[in-house]
Amino acid sequence: MLVYALQSLLLPPVLLLVLALVGVLADKRKWGRSMALTSLVLLWLLSLPIVVNRLAQCWERVPPLPANAAATFKPGALVVIGGGLQFDTPEYPGQITLHPRNLLRLRYAAKLAWELGLPVLVSGGGALAADDVAEADLMAAILDQEFKTPVAWQERDSRNTAENARFSWDLLSQYGINDIVLVTQAYHMPRALMAFRQAGFNVLPAPTAFIGRNGDPRFPDWLPSPSAWANLFLLAHEAVGMVWYRIRY
Asked: How far apart, in Å, are the Cα atoms of 40 and each of 9, 12, 20, 241?
């Protein structure tokens, strides 16, 4: 819980709001006015989809999976990483289901599993230590029941990307599998790719749900949007996570 709280406070856009508030409270000092103005200007700029789109293009540097990628690389399994749980959903039994970003990963994983003829491993434990439901259980059920894609293995103990990689290795290495296709969001792929390679896998990355879009900007891209802040948080979280993983692992 402490980690989640610190993430919310120390990453943009909340960090910029906090700095702007500090600057306003210190308005009588020259640095306070400068801090408040700078923070508000940055907050406005980073609310524009066109700005965040450019940042995402710089970060999401792993390209989409080519159509013939598996022709030379012969993977033994497809691994899809959990993307979180959605709580307080009374329309679903147990009031817990998968986060929308998790569903995006599963949809693409199901598509690739059928196209490439690969067995699937779903990797994800509980979001919190007290959870009774593992992501992998829900992921397997949805893949089987809604996407008609059977799951060969479930890794239920991981709490983060590094553990997704290590625990998946522990499971698949028993079957002599170290060549995999890895499915996760495009913004998450750089860190996931590093973690899975460090765990011992040869990885063919298959990113999905790109934040950064190519092509000419549209008029709404120049207008402030809460979705830009949400995407900014995801990109900032991954950038900090990448630095942390390089230090720790």
From this structure: 16, 12, 6, 25
